[in-house]
Amino acid sequence: MKLFPIYLMVSALTVASPGPGVVMTLTNGLRYGARKALPGILGLAAGIVFIAAISTTGLGLFITKSPLAFTLFKFAGAAFLIYLGVRLWLAPPFQFGQVEAHDANWMRRFLEAFTLQFSNPKAIVFCLFVFPHFIEPEENYFLQFSILTSTYALLILVIHLVYAMIAARVRKRLSSPRGGKLLNAISGTAFIVFGVMLAFLQGSSSLIANTE
Length: 212
Description:
75% helix
């Protein structure tokens, strides 16, 4: 795996750059603290492994080669992101001292983050159009896949945990009803913006050309 150092750098930059996953981690960190944001981070890591696995199958090839399939996949993801944003905008101001049981539920946050990756422009582009370029045909496929996906997942765990810890440190500054409303507005707007960006994502053929 001669390209692994490049893969590591590209992956770290991709994980650390702003996106729906980062917004979710920051929101969970602000709401519940770093420790309780961990389920969402694990969900993001599991989601990227699942998408990477799909990208190496016939389904992944079909999505990248079929303009119709890519468009449907893209708009479904965009709709989900916009839904998350609108839901936050319509939600009552978050009360930091009164975390509801269902909101703090471990499995709920894990599954929400896992599902989010299927509408995350960074995850889609990286797994479907960048990841395959680092697989060398002459070497053991399963070993390469395991190393690359586990590396990306580990980067998500480390980098997003740092984000959650930073967010947890500023929780008290947003502990008022006004702060809770501001958090909902900022997070909701970010999800809507990323949803619109995904909707206007260029076609699969253009993306492939840009990664070669």
